[in-house]
């Protein structure tokens, strides 16, 4: 059985340095996605809506993996990719220190052979096995981020501003301006790793300054 190694194929996008920022061109890729908002006075770690969405997203992603692996014609195996999150607010300046006004899109990248039909079948199967109201909000879509600055952040989430400052300085020094949404890619599991060892890729779309 053939196995796809997306981490190896897209190593330049998912293994950045934690010492210096870099500019990458992120191509159009397919994702399972779900949108939502952090409730007032909550944050991602204690938001029930966020937890529901994560469960739905992982349920569909793993169901797709096993359906791909077990299909009769051209079975393909692959590792489920890391959870990613786009974060923003409506109006005003996005502040990493304040979390109860964040809007979000959670997503997991999918290999090129996954289709809308396969996705819908996986969501239906997930719902049969483990009903979740968030399943109805899942979607399968292409996403092209384009030119971005990125860097690996190692440590607690509340220290991300330190890494962000380095990235912003790098962008300015190399003639770029940020023009997009705060993007986090969770390479570490907060339930297993100590906060000091968490690995999170930070990414921002950029364009050349005028």
What is the number of helical segments per DSSP (H or I, 4+ residues)?
5
| CA(first)-CA(last) distance | 50 Å
Major beta sheet summary: 6 strands, antiparallel, barrel
CATH first level? Alpha Beta
Give the beta-strand count: 9
Low-confidence stretches: none
**What gyration radius follows from the Cα positions, in whole Å?**
18 Å
Task: Write the topology of this structure.
Elements: E1 2-4, H1 6-9, H2 11-14, E2 22-37, H3 48-70, E3 76-78, E4 83-88, E5 103-110, H4 116-129, E6 139-154, H5 160-173, E7 176-178, E8 182-186, E9 199-208
Parallel strand pairs: 1-3
Antiparallel strand pairs: 2-5, 2-6, 4-5, 4-8, 6-9, 7-9, 8-9
Helix pairs in contact: 3-4
Folded structure, characterized:
- The chain is of the alpha+beta class.
- It has one domain: Multidrug-efflux Transporter 1 Regulator Bmrr, Chain A (Alpha-Beta Barrel), CATH 3.20.80.
- The chain has 5 helices and 9 strands; from the N terminus they run E-H-H-E-H-E-E-E-H-E-H-E-E-E.
- The strands form 2 sheets. The chain has a 6-stranded antiparallel beta barrel.
- Helix 3 packs across helix 4.
- The chain starts with a strand and ends with a strand.
- The model has no long low-confidence stretch (mean pLDDT 94).
Provide key terms for this protein.
210 residues, alpha+beta, Multidrug-efflux Transporter 1 Regulator Bmrr, Chain A, six-stranded antiparallel barrel, two-stranded parallel ribbon, 5 helices, 9 strands, 28% helix, 33% strand, globular
TL;DR of this structure?
This protein is an alpha+beta fold. It is 28% helix and 33% strand. It has one domain (2-208): Regulatory factor, effector binding domain (Multidrug-efflux Transporter 1 Regulator Bmrr, Chain A).
């Amino acid at each position: 059985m053939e196995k796809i190694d997306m981490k190896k194929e897209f190593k330049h996008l998912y293994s950045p340095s934690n010492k210096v920022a870099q500019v990458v061109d992120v191509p159009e890729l397919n994702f399972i996605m779900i949108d939502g908002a952090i409730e007032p006075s909550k944050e991602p770690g204690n938001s029930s809506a966020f937890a529901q969405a994560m469960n739905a997203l992982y349920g569909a992603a793993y169901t797709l993996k096993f359906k791909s692996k077990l299909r009769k014609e051209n079975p393909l195996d692959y590792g489920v990719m890391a959870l990613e999150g786009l974060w923003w607010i409506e109006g005003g300046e996005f502040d990493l220190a304040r979390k109860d006004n964040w809007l979000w899109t959670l997503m997991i990248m999918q290999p090129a052979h996954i289709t809308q039909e396969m996705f819908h079948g996986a969501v239906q199967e997930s719902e049969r096995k483990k009903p979740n109201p968030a399943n109805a909000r899942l979607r399968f879509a292409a996403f092209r981020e384009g030119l971005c600055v990125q860097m690996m952040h190692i440590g607690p989430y509340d220290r991300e501003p330190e890494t962000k400052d380095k990235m912003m300085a790098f962008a300015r020094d190399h003639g770029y301006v940020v023009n997009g949404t705060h993007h986090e890619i969770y390479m570490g599991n907060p339930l297993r790793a100590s906060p000091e060892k968490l690995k999170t890729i930070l990414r921002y779309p950029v364009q050349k300054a005028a």
